[in-house]
Amino acid sequence: MSDRERLKLDRRDFIKTTVGAGLAAGIGLGVPKFVRAQEQDALPLNEESAKVVPSFCSVCSGNCAIEAYVQNGRVVHLKGNIHDQAATGRLCVKGYNALDTLYDPDRVKQPMKRTNPNKGPNEDPKFVEISWEEAIETVAEKFNEIREEYGGHAISFFHRSHPFSQRLGRAIGTPNFIAHQSTCFTTQEAAWHAMVTGSGKPWTYDLKNAKYILSFGCDLLGKAKNMHMQHVTEALRNGAKLVVLDPYQSITASKAHEWIPIKPGTDLAFTLAMIHVITEEELYDKEFVEKYTTGIEKVIPFARRYTPEWAEEITEVPADVIRKIAREFAQTPPAHIPSHKRDAAGPNYVNSTKLAQTQVLLNALVGTIDRPGGALIPRNPSLPGFNVIFPPPEFPDMVTKRIDGWDEEPIMHTYYRGNMATIADGILSEKPYPVKAALVRGYNTLTFPNAQRMTEAFRKLDFLVVCEIIPTELVQLADVVFPEPHWLETSGFANRGYNSSYPQLALRLPASEPLHNTKGFGSIILDLADKMGLGRYFEGVSGSKFDDERLKAIGTSWEEFKQLPNGLWGDEKALVPREEFNTPSGKIELYATVFEEHGFDPLPTWQPKREMPSEEYPFYFVINRPIVHKMAATQNNKIANELCPENHAVMNADKAAEMGIKDGDEVIVKSKVNEVRLKAKLIQGIRPDTVMIEHGFGHRSKALSLANGKGANDGDLIPDFTVEEFKKLRDPGAGACMSDVCLSIRKA
Amino acid sequence: MSYENTAMLVDESLCTGCNACTVVCKQLYELPYGIFRTKINRISSGSYPVVKDYFDKRACFHCTDAACVKACPTGACQKDENGLTMINSSLCITCNWCVTNCPFDAVQPNRTNGVIEKCTLCSGRIKADKEPFCAEVCTTRAVKFGTRREMLKLGRKRVGELKDQGYTNAYIYGEQELNGLKVLTVLTDKPENYNLPSNPKIPMSLQVWKYIPFKPLMFAVGGLALSFNAIHTRKIKNLQEKNKKDKGGK
User: Fold this and answer.
1) Which of A233, A249, A650 to mutate to probe the B interface, most B CBs <10 Å?
2) Is the pLDDT score of B155 beyond 80?
């Protein structure tokens, strides 16, 4: 087409539009007003005619109760249940956005088996769809083969605790149940276990009643847990002071009255100096400490050496600031230091368990453990366990030594946990024995430290089964894929995960018809056990009976429960503060005798982080989670992807300018284990010696059409360990040192 | 709730930029990729280590003196009987004049559906005695909806508290601006920090434009003139080409 012709066409278009506009406007004048407004008043949701189905959210473990609105068979909207103490009528952005996972066109829709024997990130698995029967039979046969040849322990399970699967594992004879918690919260758990609860960390906070909230990298607002956001903003509304220590200005830090960009991994020095000031100046809550704690007489002389001046050298926070914050913390009751999973007291640094210890100690010194304004030990209804309801027949003897070394963790081995930091080496080095097969549910390769090595480990297995909802990177390595239903397609009930100040259970009924040919994990396990010839361990067991029996123990039943008018069980009760705690002395043990008994430090003696900046790797490494995403699970969701499609190497703008790096430049970020390629994002709200990378990106599964190829995985940079190396860390909390690594950065 | 004297109050001091409002709005109004009726921007200012971040929930403010209404050549963008700014897409010719003239960048062309998108404050819901979705779903309750009197009272109280906490520039945006905005915003700092004009004005050109009488008629006449011009030009051009061809033939 010649230029002139194009011009002519354009002109014609223009004329058409102009004339059309004139006519349209002319007509417009004649239209009565009420017609004009109508279209804009359209209601996209008709709450009166829509079907409302009770459910609870499973994006995180908070389990917020939901009202799902269904119109023409489609779930169109999720609302927080107003009667739920956790949700109070709201959800978080990730909860609202859960619909995008349910309706993700990329979902795993049908059982599949691999036909391409070559496995690798760039290999097309050439999946073919198979029936459930064939899928279960294939896995049962293969598992039995491996069991006969190498023993049951050559089969490993990777998932969060699930009673059915754990029993199957016990029947098969494997101790290898690998879970993620050493990358998530075991450090905090160990401290609380030893000092307060004897049974893990309580995740419930009554922060709305706090007057002073002190956070060590704990991004309660930016991680967007529904109840955390509500509590902290309520506290702010009520005039509470919020102080955040974080090398990166997180969203919580941006809302804080004070943001202190502390040097990464030195938070322990800060808290030790706080203990020094509070004990030295006798600012602690004497009544609480005397009545409910033991060990203060050992803490006082212990803290003497940790002066604010000493801490200033380590943390780069001026001594008078430390002093001021210690005094404010002690003198603004109720004051509390919250901590939730991967923050500074999470398994980020080799000293994180000690930091968690000091946090428990400080919270005890100001009397906010199981008291208003502080952490609450959850008031969950007590439900009988699986083995009580379905007593198991005798199990065969089995190997107890685990491939990830978890059985040798002095304290943490009693918990259903696992070590994702050592498992890759365990599989690759075949120590103490070879593992040949794995069944993985809900974990992806991106989840592991040194993700690339973990990919190698999964490739090495003879047989990999993956239960998933979306086609992750790990699905691409699988031999057999079991598609699971989305939680909006299922039923069940749950505790109030992160906000349980009185016993309350939420009901879940299917909000959506099953969209694909899926099967729940419990049923998969029962079928598998049956086909493997292990049905005798599951006589009379079914998911519905399990639910029903548990509910009967609290005086109701599934039939009755299903009819609950609000979708919630349990009346509000006033909080009765605990007088006793589950430690050897029955008190909060500031001096942790449980640690001492296992040969660990009963008091949190200063210990620096493991890796320090060097000439080769001059930058500290921190991570953050984009507020719209849940870990590595939502990058393929339409709206979440639109709002936050990729991650960056976030650095200090002035520092970057010195290095000749401009905003948006491609950079290579390198640690001692790997390097990744990212776009640089330059901001002022980060220390010049620190690089922050948002977590959850770097998907390389071609089946994730929106997420594939965007950003890079921070996990690639995190070192993994051999079991021997890990033991040498001597960490009672078995933290995987997720941020204890240094980086170099250069223009690509 | 009487619809007439309603207002929304957005408390930026409690907004965390989570975009829960954005997500629900997009889901329910089925907005395509790139189109938002509301969205939160995180804006940063200052230099390390004194850095302030601001969260700006941007959506139509439903200005009393609305530039978009003045700009609209077809009458598609109008104030409804209760003071909400509404666009009737059956009249809208997507000329984008409202988009370019909005002092808040709160109007957006939606090319997928061939309409202009902006927040309607969920007018249908308000009429049915319900809050707009963003107020109903806001996790931190930073977005509230009620009578203008209530909202102003709440906003003033909050501004007082913020001032006491050291936010000396705390301010209710929209109480006076453009003769009052239907969406009031509690700011912790000067409007400029939120990319909001501190004294928004309707462009002079629009003020003049507004007083041109019989706009549709003018358009129609203009259109006719242009068509005539086009036909005429084509005729002349054909003639010229014919002449050229004839010459070449010889």
Assistant:
1) A233
2) yes
